[in-house]
């Protein structure tokens, strides 16, 4: 039994879990931005919302959008499928667009600037809205990781001509991507899927944070799933958009009102600050200070061998994430060294609102155990 004792531990993942007790709760009367906007539309996934909003804004063939080289890829695929041409720009040392870099990219075909609020940290939406207005451009705010984030008491996304949010990255619902736009798209028309199985998985993830046996079972199943994905060899399958007319699942629509809580951002901030207090020496400097109003999606660490570090964390029950490791295939990776550095060196740890202080201590302990045997790098991003 001793051989397996190290893996029979609770499991903590990036994605928010779903407590079974949520079914007994009443729906919240609180509606945060953008859910409180008449122009808000909710699709199954944010990429479908992007495609639909681009069509409503009459963006398409012959139009160009400026997109950061540091991106997920699914948003780029949605833009391309909507008919747009993508020009990439490098973010600066503060992970913001650089006006000096953007200006040479402007020509008569450029119609929009795509702005990403990384890890729930707010960009200066007011500044970039004015910058776009001065050049007759549309501002598209990607707040997929920044639902509930504010800047100067203004919700992230409020300055954009269009803004998109991933609701399931903040709450443990099966799916849900919201968009708000000056010209809102039509609501999705397909019949909603049940979302029941994805709901059950979120319940199991919640149990796994409390019962090591469930976490142990997950550690057995996960390698099989990874093997299957490698066998099918579809590195860009995560960019698939599906039918853009797909609404959120029945379970997402039913559970979201029960989950909405004005305390969510505070809890996520609390967990982020706890990790920052204990792991500040491993945090990229861009995320070493939690700005007022941020609702963090995850906690970043900068390490030399992120893949190996994640593997060791996994054996200790911490399911971190090397997010955005595969950019959109249209990106010339070598032309954007800062974005490449971030993809290869920065991984994410969970900070979601269902985690307790005891859980956070487990995460800190696991990171320290791993960092004691692996080299880390805290140099400036190139």
UniProtKB/TrEMBL annotation:
Keyword terms of this UniProt record: Pyridoxal phosphate
GO BP of this protein: polysaccharide biosynthetic process
InterPro entries (alphabetical): DegT/StrS_aminotransferase, PyrdxlP-dep_Trfase, PyrdxlP-dep_Trfase_major, PyrdxlP-dep_Trfase_small
GO molecular function, one term: transaminase activity
Transmembrane segment boundaries: none
Coiled-coil positions: none
Family from the record: Belongs to the DegT/DnrJ/EryC1 family.
Protein name: dTDP-4-amino-4,6-dideoxygalactose transaminase
């Amino acid at each position: 039994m001793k051989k397996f004792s190290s893996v029979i531990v609770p499991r903590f993942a990036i994605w928010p879990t779903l407590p079974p007790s949520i079914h007994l709760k009443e729906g919240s009367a609180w509606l945060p931005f953008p859910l409180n906007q008449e122009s808000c539309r909710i699709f199954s996934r944010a990429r479908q919302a992007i495609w639909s909003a681009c069509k409503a804004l009459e963006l398409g063939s012959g139009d160009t959008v400026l997109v950061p080289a540091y991106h997920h890829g699914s948003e780029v695929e949605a833009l391309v499928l909507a008919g747009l041409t993508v020009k990439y720009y490098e973010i600066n040392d503060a992970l913001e667009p650089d006006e000096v870099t953007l200006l040479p990219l402007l020509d008569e075909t450029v119609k929009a600037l795509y702005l990403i609020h990384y890890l729930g940290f707010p960009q200066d939406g007011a500044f970039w809205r004015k910058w776009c207005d001065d050049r007759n451009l549309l501002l598209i705010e990607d707040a997929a990781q920044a639902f509930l984030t504010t800047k100067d008491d203004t919700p992230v996304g409020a300055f954009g001509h269009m803004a998109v949010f991933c609701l399931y990255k903040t709450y443990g619902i099966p799916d849900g991507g919201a968009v708000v736009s000056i010209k809102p798209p039509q609501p999705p028309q397909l019949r909603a899927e049940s979302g029941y199985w994805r709901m059950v998985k979120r319940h199991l993830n919640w149990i796994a944070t409390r019962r090591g046996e469930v976490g142990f079972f997950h550690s057995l199943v996960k390698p099989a799933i990874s093997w299957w994905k490698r066998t099918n060899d579809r590195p860009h399958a995560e960019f698939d958009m599906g039918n853009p007319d797909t609404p959120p699942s029945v379970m997402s629509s039913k559970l979201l009102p029960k989950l909405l809580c004005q305390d969510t951002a505070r809890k996520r901030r609390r967990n982020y600050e706890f990790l920052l207090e204990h792991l500040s020496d491993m945090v990229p400097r861009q995320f070493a200070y939690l700005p007022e109003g941020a609702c963090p999606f995850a906690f970043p660490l900068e390490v030399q061998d992120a893949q190996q570090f994640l593997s060791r964390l996994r054996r200790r029950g911490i399911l971190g994430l090397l997010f955005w490791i595969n950019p959109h295939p249209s990106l010339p990776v070598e032309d954007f060294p800062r974005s490449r550095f971030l993809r290869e060196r920065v991984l994410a740890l969970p900070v979601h609102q269902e985690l307790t202080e005891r859980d956070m201590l487990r995460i800190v302990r696991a990171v320290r155990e791993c960092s004691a045997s692996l080299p880390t790098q805290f140099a400036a991003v190139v």
